[in-house]
């Protein structure tokens, strides 16, 4: 069974060349982030680095699980081999371009 995990909020923006996923992952370091493609599934998993001073203990906890997990099904129009990822200030940007066959292209018209 899968371990319990938080579901991070994700915005998905599409343009003519592909999609961009923007995931909020506060408290996640790059070393604790795992982004992978398995078949048509794009998976994000991350461990939070919740720091509690050694001489203190929490009396109230609103983040009961110290990990994130989210998965997306990629359409056949997207090129899963070309995913680019950037993590900055707790925000993950994933760029998934459309496959060459799905990108818009200009057709030249011949004149007789």
Pick out its properties.
four-stranded antiparallel sheet, elongated, 7 strands, three-stranded antiparallel sheet, 112 residues, mainly beta
Q: Your description of this structure?
A:
With 112 residues, this protein is mainly beta. The mean pLDDT is 87. Helix content is 0%, strand content 40%. It is elongated and about 85 Å long. The protein has strands at residues 10-15, 18-24, 33-38, 41-47, 67-73, 84-88, 91-97.
Query: What general form does the structure show?
Result: elongated
Biggest β-sheet description: 4 strands, antiparallel
Strand content: 35-45%
Mean pLDDT: 87
One letter per element, helices H and strands E, the order comes to EEEEEEE
| Gyration radius over CA | 19 Å
Topology:
Elements: E1 10-15, E2 18-24, E3 33-38, E4 41-47, E5 67-73, E6 84-88, E7 91-97
Antiparallel strand pairs: 1-2, 2-7, 3-4, 4-5, 6-7
What would you say about this model in short?
With 112 residues, this protein is mainly β. The chain has strands at residues 10-15, 18-24, 33-38, 41-47, 67-73, 84-88, 91-97.
